Amino acid sequence: MIENYYDIINNIENFFDGVMIVDENCIIRYNKSFAEEFHFSLIDPIGKTPWEVWENLNTENSTCYRAVKYGESAINQIQKLKYVDGSEHMMLDNTFPIKENGKIIGAVSISKFIDNYPTKSFIDLSNMTSTYKDENGMYNIHSIIGSSELIEKLKYKIQKVSQSNSSVLIYGETGTGKELIAQSIHSHSPRRSRPFITQNCAAIPHTLLESIFFGTTKGSYTGAENRPGIFELADGGSIFLDEINSMDINMQAKLLKAIEEKKITRIGGIESKQTDVRIIAAINEIPEDCVKENRMRKDLYYRLSGIEIEAPPLRDRKSDIEELSKHFISLYNTEMHKNIKKVSPEVTELFLEYNWPGNVREFKNIIESAFNFSDSSVITKEDVPKIVKKTKEMSSNQNSWSKNCEKPESALHEEDSLKTATEIFEKEFIMAKSKKAPNLSKLADLMQISRQTLNYKLKKYNMDMRE
User: Fold this and answer.
1) Which pLDDT value is given to residue 45?
2) What CATH number does the domain containing 342 carry?
3) What is the DSSP pairing of strand 238-242 with strand 74-82?
4) S-S: 143 plus which of 95, 130, 332, 354, CB 3.0-4.6 Å?
């Protein structure tokens, strides 16, 4: 049962140095620890209990055991862990029981080193579009794969804004590489030698965000210790706030105050501390829509939107697909010890026809999937997942247009380019479908696309469907 939730729980990784999941018997089933990066010896924990891994733990002081046995949560609890090499390190532990239909099926423990250890100055992402990093392990402008006009403009913007201290708001669909852009801005800025800290605002309960941002003072609440927040930890550097539109409105007000005053006060403290951080925020929707729907404060939006950068969707830069193919083939040849040379022309055609709703992240996963099935030096149609081949099958059905909507009077001309023809077709298709849709949600359903993708297209074609 607990295995079904690994992917969800693993998203709680942006601020912490370790994530551990135990089952209902307190057996460790998943462990993602950065201890190895700091050269701490660690017994392979999978299949063992926490007290079998750390000799100073037992059933009485193990937060995981108490979560599973008694349903207790441990919030910001200081815990000492003793490693097999004899080293001891203090951790800030948050442990929660995991329930399904009212029954405890396990527990998750998220922890952060709070003593002297080699501080991580960035958060690594597994779904970036590149493996190129600078000397500090940060992604940079050379990590952005592609040479299309959109990508060249993006790189130019990154180079320009990186020299500024102004806040940046990056927006774009899921999978377009917004954190890649954020890290590139930091890597080319005068702040490059200072910390870059990522916080996914959707991955942490809003009740914990304030302490994560501003830190805590000992005694401010039960179990609270003197602990800096990310504003202090990132002093002189940059903070990347992903999915900021998911943040509680009240928390947005506190964040705005910290940005404008350039100082923070720890929870329970009375002394303000000056901080110098650059805020880079990201949103996976059109920002104006979030403001209209009261999911983002107007004043915070105005404060962050001094510089706006759009992460272009892959469907708008399909000329980069060949370059992306070569890059990911090289990446997975190294990881999987294979010698695949290329994708077949037929597969390239499929890639160019597919709409890529998951963008570059989806493209990377498709290549990885094909690697697992390919037995030759060329990725063929048989190696590619069905979802990519469906577009080709649908387009080959000559009756699909007449079955789904009224055929519009096309405004195509002989001299039109493929890009122009595609845009005309999309706009007419939206207009035709809108006749049968009472609202935008229904229109998105009829078009079999997400509401987010529909909003992008309406903005792109300057279409106001309220008319």
Assistant:
1) 81
2) 1.10.8.60
3) unpaired
4) 130
